[in-house]
Design goal:
The complex is a heterodimer of chains A (153) and B (226). Chain A has 153 residues and is an alpha+beta fold. Chain A is built from 4 helices and 5 strands. Chain A has one domain: Beta-Lactamase, CATH 3.30.450.70. In chain A, a hairpin with a 5-residue loop joins strand 4 and strand 5. The two termini of chain A are 23 Å apart. Chain B is globular and about 60 Å long. The longest helix of chain B has 26 residues. Chain B is built from 6 helices and 4 strands; from the N terminus they run H-H-H-H-E-E-H-E-E-H. Chain B has one domain: Muramoyl-pentapeptide Carboxypeptidase, domain 2, CATH 3.30.1380. The chains are: A alpha+beta (153), B alpha+beta (226). Chain B: It comes from Lachnellula hyalina. Chain B: It holds the Pfam family TRAPP. Chain B: It is found in: Endoplasmic reticulum; Golgi apparatus, cis-Golgi network. Chain B: This is Trafficking protein particle complex subunit.
Chain lengths: 153, 226
C-alpha cells in the first residue's frame, strides 16, 4: 500500500489518547481523541495506570551513570511501530501520558499545553478534590477543542 | 464637587481608626503609612493576575461551601461576601468619575448604566454584554444584566448534581451592594442561562436578575411624573 509523502504526513499527525495518572499511581483521567481505537475495560485502564506508574518508578533507578544533579526523569518517550507514548511528569508527581502517531511532531509541546489546561481548568476549580478522577466540564470542553484542532490540521 | 463631599469623611476617618485598633496579627508599616494614606487614584489603572484571583476565589467558594445546607444557602453566602465590596466600590468609582458626572445615580436607568459600564469596567475591564428590562408586565421591578462569560466563573466547572449553582452569585452580591448603597434597595441573583449543549457559543452565559424593592419602583413612578 503506497501513499504519497504529503498524504503520509497528514495521516500521521494524529493524537490518539490521553491518560493522567496521579502521584499514587491511580488513574484520574482517560480520553480518546480519535474514533475506532482499541478500547480497554475500565479495570484494565486502572491496571495500566498502576503498572506504568511502577515501571516509571523503576526506570528512574536504572541510570548506569553517576546520579546527575537533577533527579532522573524515568521514561519520557516510548516508541513502537504504531504509536508513540510521550510521558510528562509534573513536579508534584502527576503523570500525563499522550498516545500519538509515531511521526506526530512536537509532542512535548502538546503535553505542555495540556498541562497548562489542566493547571487552569482542573486545579483552579474549587469543586475538584485533589487526586480524584477529573469530571470537569470546562476542562473537557477545552481539551477536546484543542485536540480537534491538532487532529484536523 | 458637592456630591463628592460625603464620600471623603469616612475615608479620612479610617487611618485613625486603623491605628487605634492595633489587634494582634495585623501589621502596620513602620513608616505609619497604611493603605489609607495612599492617594485613591493610585491603583486606578493597575491590574491583577487572573490566576491569583482564580485561586483566591476558589478558596472563597470552598469556604462558603463549608457547613451549608443547600445551594441557595451557598449562593447566599457568596452574595454576602460580595455585598460590602459593592458598597465601597460605589463610593470609590463615583470619586473617580470626571467631576461633572460625579453625582450619585438618581434613577434606576442611570444606576444600572453605571453598574454595566463603570462597575463592570473596573472589575472586569469591559462593559457588561446586555442590559434589559423584564418584558413581563407583571414584574416591572425586574431588570437583567447579562454577561456572556463571567470572569469569576472562567475556571469553575460546577458538578452536575449542583447545576443550579452559579458562583457569579458573588458578583450579584457586589451589584446588590452598589444598588443598596445608592439608595435603591434590591435583590440580585445570578442565573446560568447556558443550555449545556455541544458547541454552544457562550456556555457560561449568566444573567443577573436585579429585582428592586416595591418602594423603589413606586418612587421612580412618582419622580417620573413630575
Amino acid at each position: 500500500m503506497r501513499r504519497t509523502k504529503s498524504a503520509q504526513l497528514i495521516e500521521y499527525r494524529v493524537v490518539y489518547a490521553l491518560i493522567i495518572i496521579n502521584k499514587a499511581g491511580g488513574l484520574v483521567y482517560q480520553r480518546d481523541f480519535t474514533e475506532g481505537l482499541n478500547k480497554l475495560s475500565v479495570n484494565d485502564y486502572l491496571v495500566l495506570a498502576g503498572t506504568f506508574h511502577g515501571v516509571h518508578a523503576i526506570t528512574t533507578r536504572l541510570n548506569p551513570l553517576q546520579p546527575p544533579n537533577e533527579a532522573p526523569s524515568g521514561i519520557e518517550v516510548l516508541e513502537t511501530e504504531h504509536f508513540r507514548l510521550q510521558c510528562f511528569q509534573t513536579l508534584t508527581g502527576t503523570k500525563f501520558l499522550l498516545f500519538t502517531e509515531p511521526f506526530q511532531p512536537n509532542t512535548d509541546k502538546i503535553v505542555a499545553r495540556i498541562y497548562e489546561l489542566y493547571a487552569d481548568y482542573v486545579m483552579k476549580n474549587p469543586f475538584y478534590s485533589l487526586e480524584m478522577p477529573i469530571r470537569s466540564e470546562g476542562w473537557e470542553r477545552r481539551l477536546v477543542r484543542e485536540m480537534r484542532v491538532l487532529n484536523s490540521r | 464637587m458637592a456630591s463628592s463631599q460625603p464620600v471623603k469623611p469616612p475615608l479620612a476617618g479610617q487611618p485613625a481608626q486603623a491605628q487605634r485598633g492595633s489587634q494582634a496579627g495585623l501589621k502596620y508599616p513602620s513608616s505609619g503609612k497604611t493603605i489609607y494614606n495612599r492617594p485613591l487614584n493610585r491603583s486606578r489603572t493597575q491590574e491583577l493576575s487572573q490566576a491569583s484571583f482564580a485561586y483566591l476565589f476558589g478558596e472563597m467558594v470552598s469556604y462558603a461551601q463549608k457547613r451549608v445546607t443547600g445551594i441557595q444557602d451557598l449562593e447566599k453566602r457568596l452574595n454576602v461576601q460580595g455585598h460590602p465590596i459593592g458598597l465601597k466600590l460605589l463610593d470609590l468609582l463615583l470619586y473617580r468619575e470626571p467631576t461633572r458626572s460625579q453625582t450619585r445615580p438618581l434613577n434606576i436607568i442611570a444606576l444600572l448604566q453605571f453598574i454595566t459600564t463603570a462597575l463592570w469596567r473596573h472589575l472586569f475591564s469591559r462593559p457588561a454584554d446586555a442590559l434589559e428590562k423584564s418584558s413581563n408586565p407583571e414584574t416591572p421591578d425586574e431588570y437583567m444584566i447579562s454577561d456572556n462569560e463571567p470572569l469569576v466563573n472562567q475556571y469553575i466547572s460546577v458538578p452536575k448534581e449542583m447545576n443550579q449553582l452559579n458562583c457569579a452569585a458573588f458578583v450579584a452580591g457586589i451589584v446588590e451592594g452598589v444598588c443598596d448603597g445608592a439608595g435603591f434597595p434590591a435583590r440580585v441573583t445570578a442565573h446560568s442561562v447556558g443550555k449545556g449543549e455541544e458547541g454552544e457559543l457562550w456556555p457560561g452565559k449568566t444573567v443577573f436578575l436585579v429585582k428592586f424593592q416595591p418602594e423603589v419602583v413606586e418612587r421612580e413612578a412618582y419622580l417620573g411624573k413630575s
